[in-house]
Recover the amino acids of this structure.
C-alpha cells in the first residue's frame, strides 16, 4: 500500500556532500517512523538514521555529526543530508517507512528500491 521512491544518490568525492530524498505515496492512514538504511557489498544492511513524527531521531554512531535526517509529515517525505562523506559511506541507501493502513491496524514496514551512493576519488 505504501510505495517509497528514493533519489539523490550519486558519485561524490571524499569530503563532499549529498542529499537523499524519499517520497511515500499510496493509501495509508499514517507513517510513524521514516528512516534510512544502507548496505555495502559484503555487509549486512544497517540503520543510518530514523525519525519519528514528533521529530525524535536516532543515528548510527558512524554518521553522527555528519548526517542529518529530517521529514515533512504532510508531504510524507524524509531527507538525509550527508556531509563530510567518506569512502566507507559507499553503499546502497534504502528508505524505510513504518505505516498504518487504518487507525486500528498494526504497522507495516515498507522499503524503497534503493539509491547508490559512491564516495571515491
Amino acid at each position: 500500500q505504501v510505495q517509497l521512491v528514493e533519489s539523490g544518490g550519486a558519485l561524490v568525492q571524499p569530503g563532499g556532500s549529498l542529499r537523499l530524498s524519499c517520497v511515500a505515496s499510496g493509501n495509508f492512514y499514517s507513517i510513524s517512523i521514516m528512516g534510512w538504511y544502507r548496505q555495502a557489498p559484503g555487509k549486512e544492511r544497517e540503520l543510518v538514521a530514523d525519525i519519528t513524527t514528533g521529530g525524535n531521531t536516532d543515528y548510527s554512531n558512524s554518521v553522527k555529526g555528519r548526517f542529518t535526517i529530517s521529514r515533512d509529515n504532510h508531504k510524507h517525505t524524509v531527507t538525509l543530508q550527508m556531509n563530510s562523506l567518506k569512502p566507507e559511506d559507499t553503499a546502497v541507501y534504502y528508505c524505510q517507512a513504518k505505516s498504518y493502513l487504518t487507525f486500528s491496524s498494526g504497522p507495516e514496514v515498507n522499503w524503497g528500491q534503493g539509491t547508490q551512493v559512491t564516495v571515491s576519488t
Q: What stands out?
A: The mean pLDDT is 96. The two ends are 40 Å apart (CA to CA). Residues 39 and 45 are 4 Å apart (CA to CA).
